[in-house]
Design a protein that fits this description.
heterodimer, A: alpha+beta, 4-stranded mixed sheet, 14 helices, 43% helix, B: 268 residues, Rossmann fold, 2 domains, 12 helices, 10% strand
Chain lengths: 429, 268
């Protein structure tokens, strides 16, 4: 009888903290647990008793990498509770801000966190010694995204200009000109990036994913849409609590989500691409085609190509919004506190992010629920790891551990959102 | 900040405790400086950015996040032991951050709201700043920290001098920037008069009142500000909430949120 145990402690190049524990016996995995050891953070509890206009600032602090996603899901949930709709140029500005976050977050993952796996480096900085040009390209793309967020939001991390109903101040047309210039260059860099990452050597593995992503009748859904599943079903955002149930697992401060009584579904870049690729901008579609992506991509290692395509799309769409921009008459639509329940969902760079708020008659929050992308992906990440490792248990321990880390990094887990980062323990005797 | 042996590149480590990752991300957001910084400093331990883990000791440790678990209370002692200089970055590390809202509540009840099986969750009753656990050489404020101030701190370390980081209020930055005072001109509630500068007076530049994310300035008169805020229509519960966000347990903000209720002229 042979045993194999793999422990990977302190998973790197993910945002947050986590560990992976794997036990194998006679070529079969007997136990596999992705442990989240980020200290528990009680956001849903803090929010009770706070006013309806506070969640955009408070929930931004859940994640420093995707604060805009939290602000957008929070605003939309509260606006739905208050019976307010934000449309027209104010909605366009929200989209523009969100594209900025997508660009910076995806560039961070592609160049500094994910690409080093394919080229055999410990970090983006180490990779830059031999691959200076692509890394500088990546930093330029990232900077353009950050500039866009800072132009609209005041700063790149935890922007200050977002409020329920819209913004505190809207930009003048001419204020957007410098960032448009950066975005045009970033779009070219992004196209070059798609070609660069498409040439990486990808492990030959596909998973039978069940995907979930928002779907929008006219857009590659980011800001809003209807939750849709790759089996053809969909449900309104308001029905989210009936379809997605979070469960607690021992040893973890993240909650595991289950969709329609079955675990293991995937949100994020691969899910969006599978469900909505026909809504990508023509340039992004062309880049995807040239990269040989096809209609659906089930190889998680290739998600780096999908993210690069999404950066092309985000630059392209951001430039379209800037070109068409007409300064709104008011920076925000008026809102009055009232009792109600509101649901909101948007596509964070890492996947669908759902918020729900219950408000009392004075506009104070009585109950809050937040379902971040990483807790939704956690069960599916464990399945990825099982399917990846089991046929490869004969590999050397170090090689196996490295492969596990890569498999987790494929999904860009923002472990600080649910949850946090990886420490891999592979116990394979 | 003391002397260093010449010749070798100083070794830097970046540590995370309970936090959102935003302050350490600020380092990666120095797109124009990152590669040249890496030439000056050996980034020996930075899990968010690198899987290479260089052993201690480290010449400079940047610490993000607050202490909220028994394990982290131990881990920060280890970090202190292996660090010649320890600089805390961001409101979680300097003030306990938003996690310190638990200090005003029952953390067991909090756990039961978020987790079905709170017995699996190991957590402390309070979220404490790093300085409450180990000696700290410098504290850089902000939620999140400001990129220029972070570069100033690292540059100062390399030059063996103390960082130049102002401790005056946001009001001074507003004047320097030429902002119209949102409090006086628009009647918008603003914590600028009692909040430390560093952000560049961002919120007033966006027609918004400051919400205090850099914590209290060196000298504050919150009683006078509270009187003004009440005149503008803020209720007592609103006043408590406005001081209890990301630096809630900083002494001046704590006192400001607990001041006598009602307008100043009614007390005598």
């Amino acid at each position: 009888m042979t045993h194999k145990n793999i422990r990977i402690g302190g998973l790197s190049r993910v945002e947050g903290e986590g560990a992976l524990l794997v036990r194998a016996r006679d070529g079969r995995i007997t136990d596999l647990r992705l442990r989240i050891y980020e200290p528990p953070r009680f956001f849903e509890a803090f929010l009770r008793g706070r006013a309806y206009d506070e969640p955009p600032d408070i929930t931004a602090r859940i994640c420093g990498i995707c604060p805009v996603a939290y602000q957008m899901s929070a605003c939309q949930a509260i606006e739905s509770a208050l019976g307010v709709a934000v449309n027209g140029p104010l909605r366009d500005l929200r989209l523009l801000l969100y594209y900025g976050e997508w660009i910076e977050s995806h560039a961070l993952h592609i160049f500094l966190l994910h690409a080093p796996d394919f080229l055999g480096y410990d970090s983006g900085v180490a990779m830059a010694a031999d691959h200076r040009e692509p890394v500088e390209r990546g930093l330029a793309v990232k900077k353009a995204g950050n500039e866009l967020v800072a132009t609209l939001g005041g700063r790149a991390i935890h922007p200050v200009n977002v409020r329920v109903g819209g913004f505190y101040r809207v930009p003048r047309r001419q204020e957007l000109a410098p960032v448009a210039e950066q975005l045009r260059r970033a779009r070219d860099h992004a196209l070059a990036t798609v070609a660069w990452v498409a040439g990486f050597d990808f492990p030959d593995i596909e998973h039978d994913y069940r995907f979930l992503a928002l779907r929008h009748p006219e857009e590659y859904a980011i800001l809003s849409g209807t939750p849709a599943v790759s089996d053809g079903s969909s449900f309104p955002v308001e029905a989210w609590p009936e379809h997605v149930v979070e469960e607690q697992v021992p040893d973890s401060t993240a909650l595991h989500a289950r969709l329609d009584d079955a675990g293991g579904y995937l949100v994020g870049a691969l899910a969006r691409y599978a469900l909505n690729s026909h809504r990508l901008s023509p340039l992004a579609r062309e880049a995807a085609r040239d990269a040989g992506l096809g209609e659906v991509c089930r190889n998680p290692f290739r998600s780096i190509v999908v993210r690069a395509v999404e950066v092309v799309h985000a630059c392209d769409e951001a430039l379209r919004i800037i070109d068409d921009y007409v300064e709104p008459d008011v920076p925000a639509v008026p809102v009055e506190p009232t009792a109600g329940v509101g649901h909101g969902a948007s596509e964070a760079p890492r996947g669908t992010l759902y918020h729900r708020y219950h408000l009392d008659g004075e506009g104070l929050i009585t109950e809050a629920d937040i379902v971040p992308p990483t807790s939704q992906n956690q069960a599916r990440m464990e399945m990825d790891l099982r399917e990846l490792i089991e046929p490869r248990l004969n590999l050397a321990q170090a090689e196996l551990a490295a492969l596990c880390e890569r498999a987790v990094r494929n999904h860009d887990p923002c472990i600080s959102c649910s949850a946090h980062f990886l420490d891999v323990h592979l116990d394979a005797r | 900040m003391g002397t260093r042996e010449s010749g070798s590149r100083p070794r830097m480590a970046v540590w995370k405790f309970a936090s959102c990752d935003g302050c350490q991300l600020t380092l990666l957001d120095c797109e124009d400086e990152l590669l040249s910084l890496a030439a000056e400093v050996e980034i020996a331990y930075f899990l968010e950015a690198s899987s290479a883990v260089g052993p201690g000791p480290y010449d400079l440790s940047l610490v993000e996040g607050s202490i909220t678990t028994p394990e982290d209370a131990e881990r920060i002692r280890h970090v202190r032991r292996v660090s010649k200089r320890l600089v805390t970055i961001g409101a979680c590390a300097t003030a306990g951050g938003i996690q310190a809202l638990r200090d005003f509540a029952d953390v067991k009840e909090f756990a039961s709201v978020v987790y079905a099986r709170p017995e699996y969750i190991a957590t402390l009753d309070k979220s404490t700043p790093i300085s409450a656990n180990v000696p700290v050489d410098f504290e850089l404020r902000g939620c999140p920290i400001d990129k220029r101030q972070l570069l100033e701190v690292i540059t100062a370390f390399l030059a063996c001098r103390r960082p130049v980081v102002p401790s005056h209020s946001v009001c001074v930055e507003c004047k320097l920037r030429g902002n119209i005072c949102v409090l006086v001109a628009h009647g918008t509630p603003c914590l600028g008069p009692v909040t430390q500068a560093g952000c560049g007076a961002l919120c007033p530049a966006f027609n918004r009142g400051c919400y205090g994310c850099f914590g209290p300035a060196d000298t504050t008169n919150s009683r006078a500000l509270n009187t003004k805020l009440r005149v503008l229509g803020m209720s007592d519960p609103e006043l408590v909430r406005v001081y209890r966000t990301f630096n809630a347990t900083e002494e001046q903000f704590m006192r400001a949120s607990e001041e006598d209720q009602g307008p100043e002229e009614d007390r005598a």
